[in-house]
Amino acid sequence: MGFCGGCCKPLLIIFNIIFWLSGAAILGIGVWMIVDKNIASYFEVLNIDTHDKFFRYTAYLLIAFGVFVFLVGFCGCCGAIRGSKCLLGMYIFFLVLIFAGEIAAGVLAIIYKVKIEEKVESTLEKSIKEKYGPSGSATITEAWDFVQIQLECCGGKGPNDYNGSTFAKDPNKQIPLSCCVLTNKKDAYDSPDKATAVNITECQTKQSEYHTKGCKDSLINWANKHTGILIGVAIGIGSLQLFGIIVAACLCRQVDREEKY
């Protein structure tokens, strides 16, 4: 118990500073999901409706969770400084709850990752054929344009995904301008309709100056990369929390022992 008496308080305070930073990261992810155009476009293309209430609630839940982590960290600091068994007990309880929630979120992320990989090809093709173009969904169209410009790709499997689509009714416009080799790529991010190509006519009739690579592999890589980052962050924070639980329990025992004597 000598180690606990001398080191647990500073260790718990240092841990909570790191814990607060993790809360800021979680809060930042929630805000990022709401405001970042990139993630909104990728999710729209992958058939995840960013205007759906479930998506918005998920982002708000992450923001609330980040704030909650701040409050739990504050509770732990107060408990360590004041030597309060009550505050330390609450702190340990909330850490265990957060740890269980992170495990559940990690499992769901792994399941969802597999689900995306299984259905992505059919999802992308259906999205293009049924929802891209003036007669389709403006949100999906804008998302596809953004993804095709940024990733320099065309369609899901390739440009032929546009064959028989609602967009390709005009023989002179078999693929959209966002599939072309653009001369103003950076400006086209914000306004795809103002994009200019090396040769618009030859591009949109699939003769030359267009991207032949499909977007599927790039989108899967993007999803895997970001899911992997989230899983890694969750594992890292979870490991830290186990350390915090052990240190807090040790300090709680020390406080209890001091009260008895």
TrEMBL record:
Organism of provenance: Dreissena polymorpha (Zebra mussel)
Compartmental location: Membrane
Keywords in alphabetical order: Membrane, Transmembrane, Transmembrane helix
TM ranges: 12-34, 54-81, 88-112, 229-252
Pfam families registered for this protein in UniProt: Tetraspanin
Cellular component annotations (GO), alphabetically ordered: plasma membrane
Name of the protein in question: Tetraspanin
Main location: membrane
Taxonomy of the source species: Eukaryota, Metazoa, Spiralia, Lophotrochozoa, Mollusca
Bilayer topology annotation: Multi-pass membrane protein
Gene3D superfamilies registered for this protein in UniProt: Tetraspanin (1.10.1450.10)
